[in-house]
Amino acid sequence: MMESNFKQILTAENRTKYFVHVLVYFFIASIIVFAIFIIGNSSLNKDGNTKTKEKINPFEYLSLEGKGIVVFDVINKREIFSKNPDIPLPLASLTKVMTAVTTDGKLYDNQEIKITTEDLAPEGDSKLVVGDTWKIKDLRDFTLLTSSNDGAFALAAVAAAEGNPASDSSSTVDNFIKKMNQTAAKIGLSNSKYFNSNGLDMPARLASENVAGGESITVGAYGSARDMATLLEYTLQNYPEILEATRYKNLEFSSNEKQYPAENTNVFIDKIPNIIASKTGYTDLAGGNLLIAFDAGLNRPIIISILGSTQEGRFTDALKLVEATITELPNL
Fold first, then answer.
1. pTM of this prediction?
2. Mean pLDDT, range 63-85, rounded to an integer
3. Do the beta carbons of residue 115 and residue 141 sit within 8 Å?
């Protein structure tokens, strides 16, 4: 009897039936496994997207001392980060960038300039000597690297006198300052105004000038962090040679066979990767200001503008912003 049942099971008809059942079971199992895979993968993607959305902005929790800050991506023409970007603040020696831009075209690099007693009148001893003769390019580089007030005054005086040798010196200097402000307007620096060529604080009632706080203050120039980023971009694109010397920690210049060693006023210059340009500014009224441009990699110039920090804080602010920028760039 058992043998008969066994033979019945092995008949062609039953074998076919069992085979079909097995195929159906495998088919159903495959659909279930595939569905589980799709659902699981979708869940993982959802979790991944959620994590992306929850990614921490590296700028969000930075502790910065600067009152006005802009981080600008030159290639993509966009601000990566800003803090009070349009508030006018004292510029201090950032003014000298505009002085250098304004003298370009009026003076040529190999033109010689003799230092006068009047050139040494501004506050701050930059070791210039009356009677020494400098080439314009060397004096400009020395002035921007060391933030020499005397050098800025001398450059402005010579540029102002070009074409007006018989004019009163004070009126020619006034004309040069006027030209600085015309250049600022042309570039689009809507929150900036210049009163002298070196940025030193000076008596000037500016309550009607919309300076931060609307106070009557004494400044050599004022501007916003966004304006200064714009000025640096304009300078690098149109007069890149003007700021070339500011990439270096120190340089040495010659005048009348004398050697003038020059130290960069940006004491953190060697801590900024691929530095392109740098300019510092500091007065008691302005606090610590700093402009830098650096290459964040693969020809990606970034400009950082810091106004109203402290003497030390402007540098630590810059390093924090450089690090945050490098972290954020892959996501932009």
1. 0.80
2. 97
3. no
Strand partners, 291: 279, 305
- 114 three-class SS: strand
The pLDDT, as a whole number, for residue 214 is 46
Listed residue (257, 321, 316, 299) closest to 69, CA to CA: 321
Amino acid found at 253: F
Six-digit token string for 124 = 């701050």
DSSP 17: H
CA atoms within 13 A on the CB side of 317: 28
Q: Of 90-99, 172-181, 276-285, which gets the smallest average pLDDT?
A: 172-181
User: Which residues touch 317 (CB under 8 Å, ≥6 apart)?
Assistant: 64, 65, 66, 69, 290, 306, 309
Q: Which architecture does CATH list for 68-331?
A: 3-Layer(aba) Sandwich (3.40)
At 35 the pLDDT is 60
Of the candidates 264, 314, 323, 268, which has an alpha carbon nearest to the alpha carbon of residue 290?
314
Whole-number pLDDT of residue 124: 64
Mean of all residue pLDDT scores within the chain = 85
